[in-house]
């Protein structure tokens, strides 16, 4: 939406061309604000859910949310705040009947809401019910009723980077891949045996993993996707907080490169719009996408602030039947309240260390 509004300006034809590529679907369901007479004016909150699909995987299994971000747009529409909720956050998930496999409700990790909502379903129905239960969970936790919702497929971002050729960003901690490496002959090979739950089992002898060293990098499509997937072997051992931050940085880097490289290229633009459209599924909340794009036209990459819940520090607790879960601190709940009442700027001013740095550079060779 931002790239449409900023780069395409007043061209209604190109604006329509951009928004028409985006898949639209009712995602929020009962968690949505009333849609009658909705307007783009005032503060807005968008629930952004990232899923990490894998090639040749059964679509009915692709229902666990990989990242959960509340995007807050202040009433003056001058900037955007990205607030990530740790996927292991302990929350109360309400009872929910998706028509296939009802869920009784109870305490669990927040990303389980998407899985329980979509359980027993496939395709668009799995996405809509998974998203709805996640949105209801967040509404009960924070009091925030999302104005719109978006599912982003990180696998789809590979197609965007393919159009751009590369994405340049600052790697803020050396990151070792558990998915991609090469054997002694230089042939691609998996460096680690992975358990069914996604955790690392053991290193595979004779395979050297990809390592993304701290510093400026320009990554090709495959490496960029591999980098944002990593959580296990980060130098600072910040696991999901690190991946959360890297995904935010990646989104901002892609946006920056789209606006500086892709939109000025007549040969890249058609493929870029198609790739973006395939990456996103959007619930516009009853406000046309063209209105969203026009209202957000002043928000460029430099006007996007990413904020760390729990200050980016672990606050874990072992919970019977759930395992190790993250507990949102009282200050994190203050942040979420600031999102609800449109006072995030004051929170950031009072808690500057909670702002995730963009990194000292965005370009490299």
Automatic annotation (TrEMBL):
Pfam families assigned to the protein according to its UniProt record, in alphabetical order: LytR_cpsA_psr
InterPro entries: LytR/CpsA/Psr_CW_biosynth, LytR_CpsA_psr
Chain ranges of the Cell envelope-related transcriptional attenuator domain: 64-258
Stated family: Belongs to the LytR/CpsA/Psr (LCP) family.
Record protein name field: LytR family transcriptional regulator
């Amino acid at each position: 939406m931002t790239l449409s509004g900023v780069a395409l300006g007043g061209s209604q034809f190109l604006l329509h061309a951009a928004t028409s590529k985006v898949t639209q679907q009712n995602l929020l369901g009962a968690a949505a604000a009333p849609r009658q007479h909705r307007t783009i004016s005032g503060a807005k909150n968008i629930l952004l859910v990232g899923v990490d699909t894998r090639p040749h995987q059964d679509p009915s299994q692709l229902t666990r949310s990989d990242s959960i971000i509340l995007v807050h747009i202040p009433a003056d529409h001058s900037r955007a705040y990205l607030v990530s909720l740790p996927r292991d956050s302990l929350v109360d998930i309400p009872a929910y009947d998706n028509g296939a496999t009802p869920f009784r409700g109870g305490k669990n990790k927040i990303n389980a809401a998407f899985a329980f909502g979509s359980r027993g379903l496939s395709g668009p129905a799995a996405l809509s019910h998974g998203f709805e239960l996640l949105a209801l969970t967040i509404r009960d936790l924070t009091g925030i009723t999302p104005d719109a919702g978006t599912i982003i497929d990180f696998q789809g971002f590979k197609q965007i980077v393919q159009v751009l050729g590369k994405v340049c960003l600052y790697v803020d901690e050396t990151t070792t891949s558990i998915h991609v490496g090469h054997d002694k002959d230089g042939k691609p090979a998996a460096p680690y045996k992975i358990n069914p739950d996604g955790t690392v089992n053991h290193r595979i002898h004779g395979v050297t993993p990809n390592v993304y060293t701290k510093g400026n990098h320009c990554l090709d499509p495959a490496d960029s996707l591999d980098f944002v997937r990593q959580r296990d072997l980060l130098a600072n051992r910040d696991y999901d907080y690190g991946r959360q931050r890297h995904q935010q940085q990646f989104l901002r880097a892609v946006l920056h490169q789209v606006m500086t490289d892709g939109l000025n290229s007549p040969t890249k633009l058609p493929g870029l719009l198609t790739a973006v459209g395939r990456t996103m599924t959007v619930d516009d909340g009853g406000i046309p996408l063209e209105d969203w794009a026009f209202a957000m036209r002043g928000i460029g990459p430099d006007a996007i602030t990413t904020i760390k819940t729990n200050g980016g520090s672990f606050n874990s607790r072992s919970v019977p039947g759930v395992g190790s879960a993250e507990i949102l601190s009282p200050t994190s709940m203050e942040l979420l309240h600031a999102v609800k009442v449109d006072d995030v700027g004051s929170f950031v001013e009072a808690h500057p260390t909670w702002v995730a740095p963009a990194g000292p550079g965005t370009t490299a060779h």
